[in-house]
């Protein structure tokens, strides 16, 4: 029984896992096929534009990798189905054994019922009881025996139904596997065809190697020349910025010096104006302190006298005269306490007035200093670029595109004897794509390249972003731009593809743009 329960639990757990894994793999394959369809669309658009471009070859390689991933997922799904078929068969075998046992037991029940000769023998069995109690027990026994027969028959029916359901599920898994194998064969055929397409494309590259190598080297020469221009412009920008900063620093220092002198004069005037008032308040406070001290001492004296008279009255006989003196003493003590409280309140008010005057004087000095500094053009806050603070969160320079060349020294995807030196990344885009600024800044320069394309440089404090290989430009030098502002339309590269060359510079050093943009 325990083995049966364990087996059933195992089947159930596998079924749940199989269902989840199968659904997950199918969903993943659906997503992969969508990506493949999109790549096919892109390839159809770019094939007429650039037969021998790296972006085209990159898309072919990417599509082939996705196809292979779909095939791998299909293999996993097939193994799950095969495991399911195997476990279903084990379940069918177990259920058949149980059904055989149930049928054997039921046959024995029917044989015993036949031997009892049917209803007539049942009546005789009941009537032959010695008393009514025994007859009732025999009736109950016969009823339970009949229910037992029905129960066994129902167990056989249920077992047969379970076997039928398990067989149906197994047949469904077998059909799923057959369907999967057909699709897998189609996928394999497609993969082989696309591998052949890739090999043919690489062969075309090899066939045109000399021409493409010459064009590539020309492009590299142009890139080097552009890099020299960029470095010169950035160096000049830095020199100008330093000179402006130095002049600004000196001007600010002179402004601050003059402002401090004026501020000190204004504070001295405020100090003189408030000195007389402070002296008057100090006299009032001192008088209040003296009065408070006298009142306190008088109250203490009155309290001591009252205590003494109270003690004497307790020893002497009370009379009307003593009572009058006592009332008079109490009144005098209360008056002394009232004067003490009044004097204390005056002292508190005097001290508060002095504190208020001091605060007013300090506030006036600060306000005067701020006003003087502002009049002299001295700003306490320093504006700066927060470009660096947004590292990793900058926008992407195009709405849609694929990176074909990465930053730094990279081997050519086809010609292994050529190493490319990239100061940025190259992004393959659809025709008509607009490049956009990744961060607010000022257009530093718009350069015309020797191949007819243009380059836009945008300054962000000590950082620069560069958008090269533009067919047309939408901005001009000195223009303020926001994040997302279109800077130009991406132009066609020497291999026919539309490619944006995007760079990020920190001062005079190019850095990997992928460490800055959100991609």
Describe the fold and architecture.
Keywords: Coiled coil, Signal. It holds the Pfam family Peptidase_M23. The chain has 6 helices and 12 strands. With 519 residues, it is an alpha+beta fold. The strands form 2 sheets. Strands 1, 4, 5, 6, 7, 8, 9, 10, 11 and 12 form a 10-stranded antiparallel sheet that branches. The protein has 3 domains: 1-212, no CATH class; 247-312 and 333-376; 391-515, Glucose Permease (Domain IIA) (Distorted Sandwich). The chain is flat, with a radius of gyration of 50 Å. Strand 7 (454-460) and strand 8 (463-473) form a beta hairpin. Helix 1 (2-47) runs antiparallel to helix 2 (54-115). It starts with a helix and ends in an 8-residue tail after the last strand. It has helices spanning 2-47, 54-115, 118-127, 132-207, 209-315, 320-375, and strands spanning 402-405, 408-411, 419-422, 424-428, 434-436, 441-448, 454-460, 463-473, 480-481, 486-490, 499-506, 509-511.
